[in-house]
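Q: Could you write out the predicted structure for this multi-component system? I'm mainly interested in how the pieces pack against one another.
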Amino acid sequence: PVWAAGEMVLPSLVYRTGAYAPNGVPFANGVSDYIALVNAKGGINGVKIKLVECETGYKTDVGVECYEKLKGEGATGAAVFNPLSTGITYQLIEKTWVDKVPVHSMGYGRTAAADGRVFKWTFNFPTTYWSQASAVIKYIGDQEGGMGNLKGKKIAHVFHNSPYGKEANPTLEILADKFGYELIMLPVDHPGQEQKATWLQIRRKKPDWVFMSGWGVMNQVAIKEAAAVNYPMDHFIGNWWSSTESDVLPAGDAAKGYKGANFHGAGADWALHGDILATLYGGDKAKAGGKNFGEVLYNRGIVNAVFSTEAIRTAMGKFGDKPLTGEQVRWGLENLDLTAARLKALGLEDFTNPVKVTCEDHETMGPVRIQQWDGGKWVYVSDWIKPMRNVVRPLVERAAAAYAQEKGITPRKCDGSD
Amino acid sequence: MLYREAGQFKSSYGADQAVFPIAQDRWFIAAAAVFAFVVVPLIADDYWLQAILIPLLVYALAALGLNVLTGYAGQLSLGTGGFMAVGAYMSYKITTAFPELNIIVVFLFSGLFSAAVGIVFGLPSLRIKGFYLAVATLAAQFFLIWLFNKVGWFYNYNPSGTIDAPPRAMLGVLITGAEAQPEVKYLTALSLLSVFALLTKNLVRSSVGRAWMAIRDMDIAAEIIGIRPLRTKLLAFAISSFICGVAGAELFALHFGSVETLAFDINLSFLILFMVIIGGLGSILGSILGAAFMVLMPIALTNLFVGGLGMQAVTAKHTEFMVFGGLIIFFLIVEPHGLARLWQIAKEKLRLWPFPY
Amino acid sequence: MQMAAAKEAVAGAPLLTVNNIEVIYDHVILVLKGVSLEVPEGGVVALLGANGAGKTTTLKAISNLLRTERGEVTKGSIEFQGARVDSLSPNDLVKRGVIQVMEGRHCFEHLTVEENLLTGAYTRGGKRAEIDRDLQMVYGYFPRLKERRNAQAGYTSGGEQQMTAIGRALMSRPKMILLDEPSMGLAPQLVEEIFDIVKRLNQQEGVSILLAEQNTNIALKFATYGYILENGRVVMDGDAETLGSNEDVKEFYLGLSAGGRKSYRDVKHYKRRKRWLA
Amino acid sequence: MGVLNEFFVLPFLDIAEAPLFFIEVIIGGLSAGVMYSLVALGFVLIFKASGVFNFAQGVLALFAALTLVGIMEWGVPAPVALLLTAAVMVGLAFAVERLVLRPLVNQEHIILFMSTIGLAYFLEGLGDTLWGSNVKKLDIGIPEQSFEIGGVLLNQFELVAAATAGTLVAVLAVFFHYTRVGRALRAVADDHQAALSVGIPLKTIWVIVWSVAGIVALVAGIMWGSKSGVQFSLSLIALKALPVLILGGFTSVPGAIVGGLIIGVGEKIGEVYWGPALGGAIENWFAYVLALMFLVFRPQGLFGEKIIERV
Amino acid sequence: MSQPQKKIGDTLLKVEDISLSFGGVKAISGVSFEIKEQEILAIIGPNGAGKSSMLNVINGFYHPQEGTITYKGEARHQMRPHNAAKQGIARTFQNIALFKGMSTLDNIMTGRLLKMRRNFLWQALYWGPALKEELAHRERVEQIIDFLEIQAIRKTQVGRLPYGLQKRVELGRALAAEPDLLLLDEPMAGMNVEEKEDMCRFVLDVNDEFGTTIALIEHDMGVVMDISDRVVVLDYGRKIADGSPDEVRGNKNVIDAYLGVSHD
Ligand SMILES: Nc1ncnc2c1ncn2[C@@H]1O[C@H](COP(=O)(O)OP(=O)(O)OP(=O)(O)O)[C@@H](O)[C@H]1O
Ligand SMILES: Nc1ncnc2c1ncn2[C@@H]1O[C@H](COP(=O)(O)OP(=O)(O)OP(=O)(O)O)[C@@H](O)[C@H]1O
Ligand SMILES: [Mg+2]
Ligand SMILES: [Mg+2]
């Protein structure tokens, strides 16, 4: 293809087909709308972003194919990959350090990549599953009237029986030791359309809280089953891939009261949304609605796109206002400092928390907020909750060190020498 | 009238039993080998190697393995993904436990583990047949995946639950790991495929292969002429899972570099089975053609729809599904016995050319 | 070659005409190379020939079962009662009264013998009483089947299956039966009986019959007219007596030498082969 | 010792301790089993009547449910929408017969199996193109409340599902065994060519079974779709039907229901009582292992037609 | 050509009081007879008399409820078919049981399977001893192909062969095993006179040249009377006659049960 001068390529691996399309579609729409808006306003410092979608169907091998196809696309190559799948992220982590393209797995992927000394090319800010788990426990403690009251309580973890679903387990276990709650592990096999056994066990063991790391159809079924065994919905908390519109809508009224973690806002009440609605949809709300406008995952797509474009903008500060290479964008990611003021300028005040990435910390351990489904929309029921860094960070560093050893990687010093 | 066997007389049974008895075929194969081993690495770019050719070769190897079991021995199996997982996880275990061991040897050892597992799950085949067996082999698929997911030992207890291929070199050339050259990975996969294809071809044209086919075509009669069904079937399971195990190890170490059990889920089993059927049951060439079809066709369609016709990625994908499904049915109708048979008919026509028959 | 003579020899209008058909399997294997034949209304016509001559193929071409074997008629035409039937489905043909008894029995293994017979009456709809009567008729012909009526066909003996297959065809009340080697695997007594049945059907019910048969002896005894097929071509035809008295037919199809029937023991070490066409 | 205890003592103690809960587990198993049966039934129908192992059965259920929801979204009342969807499924049956089955008549089972894979791809693409890939809520007014009787929790929805499956099975079993068409269906499954030769119209037969199977798929789609929303994952329910299929027998309508119940109850008991000792999520393979154990004794499944072995 | 005088030897196989039933169906009840070395024994009888079942019993595919079988002086119990094959019993089938997907050559080669020794690792290499063995057996098989005059169809897939040739290939496969006892189930069904002559010639030659003992089932009385040394007649699972062809032909029971009219 011929590339217009002054254009740079942002690849977008999406899954608008397959079992997880209900999640993939809103996300992809959020990304593409935001980029369209940026372009409509003249691009980033005059550089237009060419968003190239590649359909993965959430399949790892297709994701790799997309990566290989897009990594060299455009005059300067791909800016940054957002694999949108833990499986694909794992594949790309290694490839990218050879190809010198950064990967940003926002709130998924390999948690250990938070250690930027080992994972130079991989970023997973603003937060990870481990951080999230600690924040959710904090929330529960809060609800119980203080962390001390967790002692003797029962917390069940219903999780997708895959590396993704199991991510939170070590953190939850450590915290169980620390706070003295009883942890009940309930794995659910993919795809999770049948969870009778799981919910029978919940009915029997009567946990005080249920935390869920689910994915796809598993969430919808879990919510229905929870209602069917009369589990109190407001004690049932999903992680941020388990608390979206697609998860609660099929359950209808049963889902009322269900909670979920999130690291950004839900709804369309931000200035940016108004901007998008006006610029891209000519104010036609119905048309925008068809594109999942304002849904949780749509908003997550926006956050993701904001991070990418802001990182590019940061990099331009150093390398000049022109299309940048992946290597340059990596620098932008590592030096990203998205302040509250900048967010406000973007029309996203308090939409997500400020982020400051460093060489050591590619995660930033951003705070998490709990939202609740009121039957028609998500509403916040907590303030921003800071994860327990003292618990999580050592885990991260240990895992990263083990990885480095296995792969024979010498960690960076982060003193500016590399 | 270039493709003729006239004038090529075979003076010994040995010559008659050669893999390619016709000279033109031999020339063609030699040319293809030169092309694959020499020309391709020179001209193919990263995308072709990493995204298309390496997976193609790996899948072709797996398809070859399954073809031994299903195409030759007639035992329908949906456990391929599980057996490949055994290969992958065992190669990880072996190479992390013995970092000095040559990676090719590691592959072969992982194959042995896979073969052992294959034998265990092949036991029910004595009594269970056809689609019943196919569904029963799903027990292997689900159990193995569950096991590798569950037992931390298999992934060295690392918290992410995935396994990563460490860099390993042979004769000073890196073969696995991110830094290994795609060309090297490609040649490794190609060599392994060629060797296994040749060995398998030899097997299926000797008495073991005939015993398999006998069991496949009519197991009772086979038993009556003296073939021991269980032993023959188990040998097929063992060899098939051996090859699949090696393919699994390759998929992990050469292609992906990092996998979780999801990579070996039931869809992989189905995919390999489709390759075998589309390519041609009971045909070595078919395994390769089938793999090529299943790997290349979707990519070609996507590139056609997105690149060529400028469709949206989603619409393209949906259309691709429909066209791909339609193509499968179309090819089956044109030739139920697969692409390999189609190729053979083409050759036969060529032989008769310019006469229609 | 002797079409004209053939036409004269048979009485009545032709019920079935096969006109110079050519059949190819799998797009490449040419099996029938221009076969023509006729079956007159009410006639019994035998189709003779060595293994692989194309008898079965001819019958399948007529009953339109070829397509299921990836074979097709590439030239020529087939007419039944004056109308072309080459493109009818087998089911329509059965409805018009042409049914084939396939070589190699082809019983429905998992159905009982009786259910097998009843499937034969499928095209006749649900006329219970009539069908019951015909069922009794078939049992009358083959008492052995009555004994085994509730056995799964897959477990009956070869001969029992053959009877089932023939009985099944009779259940459709055909106008014309294409019989492919009915005598195969039947005890001598039964062979006679089957041909008696065939004859009775022919004479009493006016069913026409096209018969592919290796047992030339008996075929020529019951048939009025015969065709000899070799290598996919009709090499000779004539009425049964003429054929029966032809020297070559005698020697190669009837096993009669100049001095009467020769013993199988004596043919041992020498062998002369003759083919009409190379 | 500890292991033995965990596997052979504790689970039984557990059961004895809370018998009411055990009953609940069994009921849970039964109701899950009924849902599996619904899917298995579609497979059985098609296999029985054409020897085709229909890989597309799951996608068929998805397609049916999608169509139903899609039509309901136009504002059509549920009963009318149901009829319209049924009509679409019949239309689909015609298309499948003409475009897939007819050209492949008399081919080996595995080839037909493969062709249904092509069909699955096609329908998946078609469904997405026509109706989009969002999760859609399906509500045709089946009550969903739970209630307790004597301390045992029951769910109305599950009772409706059980009743539906029971009725379907009864009707279909009668249809297969006692009608002329039913007999013809079984004949076709045995030998396409012979069936043709006796004048059984394969076309009609195939259209009938695929229509019936399509409608059964619609029922399955409704039941499962009400639970999880209508979306692509619905097509994966086919996997849950496979152990049921081999346990009950590929060719038996009653087998589908009995097999479903056994698998349902077996896997729930396994998961609830033995699962914890093994780390949980054993349901999937446990169902297959359970089915395998039955198969070793009856290779054709509990009610399947005996595999004829003769020379 | 001078015919070597045939000498019929001792009992090779003895069947005593065999009874076999399937559920309620009694396929064989209390049948006894013997097969002597190098003889050609014909088993005849109406359809469903239990002839094929008898062969199945002899080669271990069916296990009779009662009775004993003594082969080469040893009584056997519950034998699996492949063991029978190992002990030198080969057979052909009434419903052709060839391996449809394989060529004629390969089908006949399977008959030699028991004689091949190299394990699969050697075979995978297809080299050295394995190759030598393969070629040696190929040579033997080619002799059989020549003998049966099926050179032209050597490489044809057997599923496509006409019925009669398939029967011939089946015979070839059985011969390839170089059996001591050859069981033939209606080898000449579906053949015309000329082809039957061929088959008879093969059967007689095998019997003469290799001294193979043959038990055959056949409905063509001409063939049975001409080539067999002895005839056993079954009816409804019982033996109703046993003797030389001439004795049997004249036997009233046999005529009633089987022949219908007397055959000359
Ligand atoms: N499905 C098929 N595919 C390819 N070739 C076939 C097929 N069926 C038959 N033939 C070939 O067609 C020729 C004629 O076969 P056909 O079965 O018609 O012979 P026939 O006269 O009935 O012989 P027989 O007496 O043995 O039954 C044979 O050479 C056979 O090999
Ligand atoms: N496996 C079986 N199960 C049930 N019945 C059987 C089985 N095998 C044979 N039979 C029955 O036993 C009887 C004898 O069968 P067999 O095949 O031995 O007859 P046969 O003498 O060979 O007859 P034919 O000349 O018709 O081949 C038949 O009635 C048959 O239905
Ligand atoms: Mg024939
Ligand atoms: Mg018999």
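A: Regarding packing and overall arrangement: The longest strand of chain E covers residues 11-22.
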